[in-house]
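Async update (no meeting this week)

Hi team, since we skipped the sync, here's where things stand on the single-chain job. The sequence we agreed to prioritize is pasted below, unchanged from the tracker. I ran it this morning and attached the output directly underneath so nobody has to dig for it. Comments welcome in thread, and please keep replies under the output.
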Amino acid sequence: MMMNDYAVGMQANATFSYQIHHHWSLFRRTRGHKSYFYFMPKTPFLGLEILLHGLFWVLTAWLILSSFSIESIEYTVENGVEHVQVIRNPAVVHQLMATLVLSICLFYSNAYSLLRNYQSEKITTMVILSVLLFLSALLLQSIFVRMSPVLKGPGLQAKMQWAIMGFYFFVSTGYALGRITWKSTIRHKSILLEKKQMELNALRHQLQPHFLFNALNNLLALVDQKQNPKLADAIDQLSLLLRHVVDTRAPIAVSKEIEFVRNYIQVQQLRYAEQEVTVQLEVLGTFDQQPVEPGIFIPFVENAFKHGTEPEAFSRISMQFDLRNRDKILFRISNPIRQAVNTGGTGLKAVIRRLELLYPGSHTLSIDGSSEYLVTLTLSTHEGDHRR
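Output:
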């Protein structure tokens, strides 16, 4: 019962340690997912955003058409009343309308390109495509003016058309960057809330190991250590295991993790008769202060006892910690195959997933079950804290 509670507490801490990093790494990766940014996401403010877009185009189009299409202004006085007549150039009006249509296409094409390429973290591609879109719009404007009979004739200067399109281009860029910043801020706040929730859940799970730890100390005080030395030693070892789970904060020195493994082995050997299970633990090298994730080796040790031993049969478990390299930890463990090992089981999948999250690109795991069950795990620690 106590070992099951220990496993629950350990799993809670392990889950908390890698889920936070998983969510942060997920935040960096999801910018490349198609669902992370929507051009106009379906939100309660979608109708308001469409309305604002419509007002923007109506107002700017009205200002441009009313300001730049004026050819002349005539003032006349009849019966003492002054009249003002604004004469507009039809060719200029047509050219402005064509420019506005191209500007609308440029605006949303540029915004979509920026959002789409930012998702994939293709910053260089994003800039190049935006420039190409702007130059293509200018080229199309020149072609329309030359080929369309409606747009021919004296009218708006080319520089003025380019200025109008440039205005919409920069507004489009600002709009896209603003949406990116807004979405990133919302996503960041959501991750912070999830992180706080995970911290709260981890604290709730820690209550059970703390309770067991205090209960074991009380039991140890009641045991007569002279009459029952093995029972007292077992309670003390289990107490050390729970203390490691409750009080340890990642990362820790590999020397402390090795000591944790030693205590775990002693507790496991209490289940067997004397010399029924022989465990050889060898430590090579002196670089024992390398950082490592707590409990990262325990699943393999537990697996060795589960599948490599059986009652009333001699079993031998060998494990080795090679610490001769200052920035690499090599761990090997082997045991006879007494019971079938499900290499696709949930426990092994969880261990592999945890290694992928905590040591991305900096670990190798080899499992060989031909003649005996042999696990070889290599962890690179050259970056110090591997989770940075």
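Quick observations from my side:
Confidence is low (pLDDT under 50) at residues 1-38, 383-388.
The longest helix spans residues 158-222.
Reply here if anything looks off.
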